[in-house]
Structures are given as C-alpha cells and as structure tokens.
Hints:
Distance between the termini: 44 Å
CATH class of the largest domain: Alpha Beta
Shape: elongated
Strand order of the largest sheet: 2-1-3-4-5
Amino acid sequence: MKxxxxxxxxxxxxxxxxxxxxxxxxxxxxADGLDGQHMALTETYxxxxxxxxxxxxxxxxxxQTLREENITTPILLLSALNKPQDKVRGLDIGADDYLAKPxxxxxxxxxxxxxxxxxTKEIKQTLIEIGDLSVDLVKRVVTRGSKKIDLTNKEFLLLxxxxxxxxxVVTRSLIASSVWDINFDxxxxxxxxxxxxxxxxxxxxxxxKLIHTVRGIGYILExx
Length: 224
C-alpha cells in the first residue's frame, strides 16, 4: 500500500518513512503543505499522514481542501497540540484520526494499520433505515423525513458506527477505540462533544429522538 507523509520536520519525516518502508509500505514524502496538496490531489494514496503545523498551507486547511475536493483517503493528523478542542477541530473537518506528538512509532504503525483495515472493510449493507432516518453508506447521503442532513466526515463515521449497533448500548470507550482509535481515559470529552454535535443534526426539530444517552455507560441509537 502507498502512503503519503506531509511533515516539515525532515528528521521525523525520514524516520517515519524508514519505519513504514520496513513495515512493507511504499512511502512518498512532502516537506510543506503546498507540495503535499499537489501530491495528494494528483496521486492515489491509501493513507495520508499529515502534520498540522506546515509551511504555506497548514494541515487543517489542507484536510479541509482535500475533503472539499472529494478526496476520501484516510488522514492521520500529527500535532503537538493535545487539548480536546484541538482534536475535535481536526476530526470535525474531516481527519480520520489524531495522534499527539511525541509518540511511539509502534502506536503510529498500529493506527495506520487500523485505518487501512477500516478503509478496505467490505460494506455489506449500503442503505440503512431506522424510523424516518435513511443513510446511504456508499453515496454518504443522510436524510430524515424530507430533510437532507449534512454531516462532516467524522460525524458520518460516528453515525455509521452507531447504526451498526442500533438497538444496543455502546460505551464511550468502544466509540473511542473503534471510530477514532484514541485512548478513552484522556479523550472522553472528544466523544461527548462529537456525539452532541451529531445528535443536534439528527434529532433537532424532530419529535422522536434517535440518539439517547445511557447514563454512566454510553449511547444507544434506537427509535423509542
């Protein structure tokens, strides 16, 4: 599989490239956001590892641009910023995972493999409905009644995950590890904030609510 690393710290970029090469991946590198954007838009990659603090175009802006250009390649953000709101922002604009610096290479490799497994996972059911909510997993179109609901990439993945367990309670730790591959203990607020945002779009203005909080445990998606 072919990966793209966009990292302006040359020493770190070379270290990651060498490690990923040894793990069996083909790796291209770019040292700034402008070159990285050109490569991401003109080449086909299975995953992009993207630093946030980059010359010319920062990682957040680049992520947003790629999603606007319908580039669905999984993106793993790297950043020295480690506050929940920083992670929420990155995930909300379309990144698939967020890894704070400094990190162990073994953890980065595990996240890369997890994102690639998720990317290649076969979709067995393309249209899921619950009540008046309809979700097309291939076209990524969400409607409730006659209303089309616009979701960010991460909100859609969260909804897809909840739908896969519809009628069952899912814990915050399961959401954290399955949707974001992040540690629950340090990222509890990220999960709660993202579920709140998804709920505001899915349930706001509708009499029958679909996303429910199970106090002390997690969440459940069901028609009551």
